[in-house]
Specification:
InterPro entries: CheY-like_superfamily, Homeodomain-like_sf, HTH_AraC, Sig_transdc_resp-reg_receiver. The chain is α/β, with parallel strands linked by helices. It is built from 22 helices and 12 strands.
Length: about 550
């Protein structure tokens, strides 16, 4: 089949239909001589064969004879107009078949061509007119689609604005609510409401995962999917966008038992989650409120759903959460925050530095297991713990006369605000505790000036090798003497210290999450990923990837 195209405009996909092979070949030759962008899709010997092609392939125009076996041209056009009305039809006729051509026009043919007089120029003119009509129709279709899309987006925006006003406390009557639902064409009554809050599991990396990149179009798609799901499942409800990254779904529940309401709502939430993943590639978690009798409780319900969603997400537990399932307020059976801080303060005041990290690890494991503290309480504990560590460090710095280790430049509260999960808070706090206690131990048992300089040198030059000879040259000591001195004062070998500095840097970079693991060897001074992984596992008991999965 030939393909004749000029420029980048869309080709006309054409099917030739005639029971005479010679006529079909003659038409193919004429088509190849036109100046139009043409793609010959198929050359068929009867209407039935051509109809099968049109049903399965992208066709713009058929050029068909009238009298053919199996299925004639008029029957073919009549069926084609019913099934594929967008396809244009041209009739091949002779003078003796003019009444058939007239009948074909009535059946839906666009025009007719006299076999005896047709030339490449004539065919080009006829197809040119047909092409213009097709392009006009496509333009109209695009304009209609664009208009419908704009109307849909505007309706969704008005919907979100209305419900957001209700959430923020706007007062309206039940009659006004239901009247507004009618105006917005939303199947939702003012009584017996459930609220679900839906949020992407990974907003920062969402663009890499979802199938729709434009945020406005994505919001519309999410809302439409949730609307359709609720309408199908609950026969009521809608979705609206609330603030950034949050979608809120509402629906009416019937006179159900508490167990039935719970099971049904969880089923709806699971289907919404599945559909968003399947259709958009969007992974979400869902928080579900308690039921409410009146629409005036929407604001309270939204906060219930959002609170349970945020609580679960903070502790790294995603997917679907029911408000009443989450123990978000401490009770008498749980150790209060201040008691933990008091014990930490006692350990610091008595210089039991070796107990600090194990104690904090035990506390955080207990908090993470019970998930009783809110995100705010966990972060408050972390900041207060760091302040206690800094207070201890200032005390030792003053006692030793070494002001170079003053922690006053640190801003733990600013760092804490940006930690998204309990795992991040845990890693950050344990790392800070390790650094501070190591510094404290050094202040209690100060190293010589040469060893302090070597430690500072390693922290600056670990990525460029920082060999023992380079360190010895830096402090103007013999390499072997420095090795013995370092071991004597610090209790570890120089090479082990370099390794620990590099491993600490790797941990920090992994927790920051901005650099791929594959780039870490070059950054910290290791030859390749295999060697880095081997050393990391020897020191920590796990590979870098295992560390990342466990901590984040």
């Amino acid at each position: 089949m030939f393909h004749s195209s000029r420029g980048v405009e869309r080709d006309l996909n054409i099917v030739i239909v005639d029971d005479e092979a010679q006529i079909r070949r003659w038409l193919e030759i004429l088509l190849s001589k036109t100046e139009l962008p043409i793609n010959l899709v198929a050359s068929c010997s009867n209407g039935k064969e051509a109809l099968d092609v049109c049903r399965t392939m992208d066709v713009d125009v058929v050029i068909t004879d009238i009298k053919m076996p199996v299925m004639d041209g008029i029957s073919f056009i009549r069926i084609l107009k019913q099934e594929r009305p967008a396809i244009e039809s041209l009739i091949l006729s002779s003078y003796s078949e003019f009444q058939y051509a007239s009948e074909a026009i009535k059946a839906g043919a666009s025009d007719y061509i006299l076999k005896a007089e047709i030339t490449a120029s004539d065919l080009s003119k006829v197809l040119g007119r047909v092409k213009q009509e097709i392009e006009k129709e496509r333009l109209r279709d695009r304009e209609v689609y664009s208009l419908k899309s704009t109307i849909n987006v505007n309706q969704l925006a008005l919907r979100s604005l209305f419900f957001s006003d209700l959430v923020y406390g706007k007062k309206i009557s039940a009659h006004e609510f239901e009247e507004k639902m009618g105006t917005l064409r939303i199947p939702l009554r003012s009584k017996h409401l459930m609220v679900m809050v839906i949020r992407s599991d990974d907003p920062a990396n969402r663009k890499e995962q979802v199938k729709i990149q434009d945020s406005v179009l994505l919001d519309s798609a999410v809302m439409n999917i949730i609307d359709e799901t609720l309408l199908t499942e609950a026969e009521s409800g809608c979705c609206f966008v609330f603030e950034k990254e949050y979608y809120v779904a509402l629906f009416n529940y019937g006179h159900w038992s508490e167990k039935s309401l719970r099971e049904t709502t969880l089923q709806y939430a699971q289907r919404i989650s599945n559909y968003l993943q399947d259709h958009l590639g969007l992974s979400v978690s869902v928080g579900i409120s308690l039921p409410a009798l009146q629409f005036s409780s929407i604001g309270q319900q939204l906060e219930e759903a959002r609170a349970v969603l945020s609580h679960k997400r903070f502790y790294g537990r995603k997917n679907i959460s029911w408000h009443s399932d989450e123990p978000m307020t401490p009770n008498a059976a749980h150790t209060p925050l201040q008691k933990y801080l008091q014990t930490l303060s006692e350990l610091l005041d008595t210089n039991q530095f070796e107990m600090i990290s194990p104690y904090l690890q035990e506390v955080l494991e207990d908090v993470g297991r019970k998930m009783v503290w809110s995100e705010k309480e966990v972060k408050a504990f972390g900041v207060e713990a760091v302040f206690l560590l800094q207070r201890m460090l200032r005390r030792l710095s003053v006692a030793s006369g070494d002001n170079g280790h003053s922690p006053d430049r640190d801003s733990p509260h600013e760092e804490m605000v940006n930690l998204p999960t309990f795992g991040h808070v845990t890693s950050w706090l344990l790392a800070r505790a390790s650094d501070v206690t190591a510094t404290a131990d050094m202040l209690r048992h100060p190293y010589s000036e040469a060893i302090r300089k070597v430690c500072d040198y390693v922290k600056l030059q670990y990525a460029d090798g920082a060999s023992l000879q380079q360190a010895a040259d830096y402090v103007h000591l013999n390499k072997n003497y420095l090795s013995e001195l370092f071991k004597k004062e610090t209790g570890s070998s120089y090479n082990d210290y370099v390794t620990l500095v590099r491993i600490d840097k790797i941990k920090a970079l992994i927790l920051e999450g901005n650099i791929p693991i594959g780039q870490l060897p070059e950054i910290v001074g290791y030859p390749d990923g295999s060697y880095l992984s081997k050393v990391f596992k020897k020191v920590t008991g796990m590979t870098p990837l295992e560390f990342k999965r466990k901590k984040i």
